[in-house]
Amino acid sequence: MRDAYHEELDSIGDVLVDMAGLVGSAMARATSAVLEADLSLAESVIAADDAVDALQREVDRRATDLLVRQQPVAGDLRMIVSSLRMTADLERMGDLARHVAKVARRRYPDSAIPPELHSTIAKMGQIAELLVDRVRAILIDRDARAAAALESEDDAMDRLHRGLFTALLDESWKHGVETAVDVTLCGRYYERFADHAVSVAKRMVFQVTGVRDAVPEDFD
Amino acid sequence: MRDAYHEELDSIGDVLVDMAGLVGSAMARATSAVLEADLSLAESVIAADDAVDALQREVDRRATDLLVRQQPVAGDLRMIVSSLRMTADLERMGDLARHVAKVARRRYPDSAIPPELHSTIAKMGQIAELLVDRVRAILIDRDARAAAALESEDDAMDRLHRGLFTALLDESWKHGVETAVDVTLCGRYYERFADHAVSVAKRMVFQVTGVRDAVPEDFD
Which end of chain A is more exposed for a tag (fewer CB within 10 A), N or C? Predict the structure, then answer.
């Protein structure tokens, strides 16, 4: 049987999984909102971010309490400290989903994304979802090897991000400056979302193995 | 006399002050590089960011060691945990200065900033420097009241950021899409730099007072 202390540790891990689920859903819905100019979907993403922030505060409070009351050592200590950092990454991923939704809202009833870039943004949304699915699995299984696989998804996100810039800077661009600004910002939001997902995975590797890999660069 | 443990705590605080100094200097030089299309200055900012990253790793290693070896409680524990978060903010501020420098490098020998926006970006650079100066003073003096003053600087940054968008979206914009993209990105980098500076100050308030203020939203 687990004692109350280890139950609390497990429970903090469960909240991280919940946070990952919420930010993955938020980014999926934000992608639909920005591609389909869906105002009510955008509003729901913007409103839902408060729940992510509340979970972050909850984990931070409980993790700090554990540090103070239980004086954990070694592996447990590492877990609690890295949880505090993972909540910061996950909270930021929620912000980035909200930012995409705000672009959709600002441009409604127009779409912020021109037709020829729909498939690029749709793919960036799919990779964002895939990354979050993998992060959730890593948080649940504590499988350090699975974290390595995220790098290739992140590379794919990076290629799509560069593709957006190629389209923006092509002489044939005909969608004006406002759309260029929105595409620039959305591209950055997806790319940063992926960076934070990789960061969560790397922190989990550190938690499990004690080997600190460098936290990822962002690549622009 | 201070014992070795408290000397180590103080010394971690000193490294945070050093990090703030480095990222402030980096953003000041990045601003000159992007305004004056100064390639060698841009290169020096890009190269110097490694030193900030190294200091972050040093603080993180030493803070984690202290947690493991000394089992600190209450105020000391709070200080160590918030140090771990402040290094993350400061490291990110270094990244953002590097991003501005990379924009300067990418557009060399042209300037990424059109003449009529020079004064706006120059002011954003000045506010970034002012914020870092205040953050350094707060880290040195541990003066929680001084942190409140940062909000007004951050509001000023926000107004300048909105001013950039107004210029970008004005029908009279004549600098094309590439410059619009660069101005959009630079605006975001300065605004995020300011957010992280406010975040460091708020963490210091929490460290000193134990009262957790919400970590700042970013305002776009």
Answer: N
